[in-house]
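User: I'm putting together notes for a lab meeting next week and I want to include a structural view of one of the chains we've been expressing. I don't have a solved structure, so I'd like a prediction I can at least talk through. The sequence is below, exactly as it appears in our construct file.
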Amino acid sequence: MNIDIILDQIYPLPESSRLSLKKHIIEISHPKNFCLMEADKIIPYIFFIKKGIVRAYASTAENDITFWFGSEGETVISMKSYVEDKPGYENIELLEDCELYKLETESLRKLFNEDIHIANWGRRFAERELVKTEELIISRQFKTALERYKDLMRDKSDLLKRVQLGYIASYLGITQVSLSRIRAEIK
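Assistant: Thanks for the context. Below is the predicted structure for the 187-residue chain, given as structure tokens.
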């Protein structure tokens, strides 16, 4: 996905502001299974997914718990690092070979002070991330695994074809056996 489209999804920028912002964005690529972000580390970058899928997870003594998937056009960020310059909670693993756009957080902060349009873009960006987090929390607290699976089918059906069932089961908070039952029930 093109960086201009990704930036506009967040908040449309005047051309001069867009060009200023894009001067600080570089394209990178990493192979499948690469760890883009590690928990307990400050991550001084924001990433936008040009191509590929990533998952965010937290590790416990028993297993890894997947709590978010990102695909083309989405942002990958440690909000704790972005907002507070503190180590984040999440690990981000690439589930496919990925092409990403990378933006240094410090460069973005400088641009906020120089350009009101970019500052407004940043505000809108943070608002959207807050809403995503809120929706995730509400979904986990108030929806059944079946309802969350149906939401995935409706909102991100491509994930179901591209992501291992074990990660999907972890995301839903169920076993793979339970996921198989849900899938059989829906068919």
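A couple of points you could mention at the meeting. Strands lie at 25-30, 35-37, 45-51, 54-59, 64-70, 75-76, 91-94, 98-104. The first helix runs from residue 3 to 10.

User: Perfect, that's what I needed.
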